[in-house]
Amino acid sequence: MALFLVLLSSAIVLVIIGAAVDGLLYLLSTGVLLLIVAVLYLLVCSVAHSVANSRGRPAH
Fold this sequence. Notes:
Elements: H1 2-20, H2 25-55
Helix pairs in contact: 1-2
């Protein structure tokens, strides 16, 4: 979860700087890509967590 928060905060900072400063479009695009990576990371972790929890329970 800490890695997700670091990725998310970095993405937000890069998007704000890239949008505010003229000529730094590459920072804006890097921030958007980092935001997508953060969301995908959260999705993969939550799916892996739910799969791990479902395997640990015995079938009744």
